[in-house]
Amino acid sequence: MKPVKVSTRGATSPASPIRKLVPLAVKAKESGKTVHMLNIGQPDLTTPQPMWDAVLKNPPAVLAYSPSEGFPELRRAMARYYEKLDIRIGADQIIITTGASEALVFAVASIADPGDEILIPEPLYANYIGFSHMLGVKVVPIPTRPEDGYHLPPREVWEEKISPRTRAAIVCNPGNPTGTVYRPDELEMVLGIAKDHGLFVVADEVYREFCFDGERHRSFMNYRDTEDRVILIDSISKRFSACGARIGAVSTTNREAYEACHHFSQARLSPPTLGQLMAVDAFAFDDDYYAELAGAYVKRRDAVMEELSKMPGVLCEVPKGAFYAMAKLPVDDSDTFAAWMLSDFSHEGETTFVAPGGGFYATPGAGKQEVRIAYVFEADVMRRAMEVLGKGLEAYPGRIG
Amino acid sequence: MKPVKVSTRGATSPASPIRKLVPLAVKAKESGKTVHMLNIGQPDLTTPQPMWDAVLKNPPAVLAYSPSEGFPELRRAMARYYEKLDIRIGADQIIITTGASEALVFAVASIADPGDEILIPEPLYANYIGFSHMLGVKVVPIPTRPEDGYHLPPREVWEEKISPRTRAAIVCNPGNPTGTVYRPDELEMVLGIAKDHGLFVVADEVYREFCFDGERHRSFMNYRDTEDRVILIDSISKRFSACGARIGAVSTTNREAYEACHHFSQARLSPPTLGQLMAVDAFAFDDDYYAELAGAYVKRRDAVMEELSKMPGVLCEVPKGAFYAMAKLPVDDSDTFAAWMLSDFSHEGETTFVAPGGGFYATPGAGKQEVRIAYVFEADVMRRAMEVLGKGLEAYPGRIG
Questions:
Q1: Do B241 and A62 lie within an 8 Å CB cutoff?
Q2: Radius of gyration of chain A (CA)
Q3: Looking at this predicted complex, what is its ipTM?
Q4: Which of A200, A250, A304, B212 could form a disulfide with A103 if both were Cys (CB 3.0 to 4.6 A apart)?
């Protein structure tokens, strides 16, 4: 019998830094510990009642496929939502996807072939690496620095990384895991590079409304002359606290890119039906909804920052958006530390689960002292989770400095 | 400004033969025609009430992510279901996916790299081509013939197509679009080839319970000595009339293939939450449920076959499983014919939408006289849809023979 062998991309596929320690968290819970799950962007906010009503009040008799590109009602609702944000995307330029995850897969596949390269500011959303890896596309990281608040480096740094195989840049704004909200001049620089080098810009704006301290979000789609080289990624997961609905969208005015994404979407038949029904009315929520949402998260962020500032050796810039903070900890290895917190540590029966930083870097060895903290619970809970984290840092055998 | 260019795989991605004519169907409906939608496997059967109750009676407050590999309750329910079928797969060898579609993407990516080849009996499920194309994997068709009831050709035919890049065979049993139920000797031949050439077998068994005329389904997983080279694809879409739930599964006892699929699953976070909640109890449905299901479809099939047999020049073997029939029509080009039926034809205000056969072939130019008919409606409706199809064939300007 001749043995079988998995593919190279299968054998080398990276585990998610957000998910890989979950088995340890499950064991910790089974042993009776309370685990503060700050590893993942799963908010505690209830999914708005109107969204539930959309399915509960009048469920369909047959849970049928939707069109591949999503229900027309939802695409129209999203187009109206974009219009209010000065984003010119028609309903027929939107493809509803199974979360932003699938939107990213379609976007990358439509603009890059195996062996092609994509520029991404680093630290980066870990799953960009996973999707690119599955599609045979190489992630080329663009370094940013905590002391610059993870803002983008100058144009020269980008241009050094451009090769004949470079096809696009992916920019997450506000940034996951950094919480950075990019300034207009940064967006203009990226678009300028894209113009001069024939690149697409994949704009991941799922945290668009999560901006604090008077920061205003500007979209890559707000620039008229480069609209047709932008591919917009979106999701209802965070905005409407509906992560499990798995509804996102990939949108573009570039006809060829749209057609490619459309064909990919046909192959997988349709996005989830119930999640789409829930999303239609949600896109009509008014400014008050978003103001309340941002208000809730700013309190959580402030609680986290206040507690972190009390811990010796911990460095963390104040994030201006999204609901994540990258913190540098006085530890030898944040992978080991995060695992130790789950397996070996507890404080008054509690522990805190953070995502190790290494997985948010494409550069080997980088991020070994950083962790990502998702501030997805109420301020009091976050404060307590930070207190437990601080106790863990004091007790951790691999503490340095 | 330097122009952007989409990827080669994007520019050459095939449109789905099942979905590509939908815009014409929409127009036909808008013009007042009744369109019998036999293009797609979307049954009219209501989704069982216990599945609805699972979400409607006690909806969660927060629609949260599930684990990447799916809820443990659902994985355990599937393992129990498999056990009854003499399929030895543990709950921890099952990954819940967003439909069989995603299961196929994970399976192919885990066993094939860009440029690798996969053998698939032809005509084939069109989306195998779409997924493979997106992943840079080449589909190598294994020809089958209508006069053999699309049963598999002998081993020599397969071995002629094997190259150093061949990594796997995908076999859909019962077959979509053919309705063929493979005999044990056919399964054993495929497994024998896989053993001798170091290939995986991707077993797509989503129509497992749809077997008629006393046919009994045998699974590729029923053979003990080759279990670890089989990757099993499944779905709740057809079995429980819940296509829009988008819940499937990829399962394997091969540890490395499982790990690869698991990492891919982590990158996209989780499958839809509500669909999973609906599926748990459904996997405990008893034999009576499945007997009733198969009984409903056999009536539909018989109605289709009876009507087709009345049409001069139409050839169609009696399908023994699934709910599709491939029929050879006396037309110049089934793409043109299917489009013409929607755009130019009606009989008493009705028309019939069939999927053109070409898209179910990887061989260029093949299938030009075939169409796939999904018998997903009640026998009376199917009979009427066939009558309308027959009238269309009489009137079609490109009729031949």
A1: yes
A2: 21
A3: 0.96
A4: A250
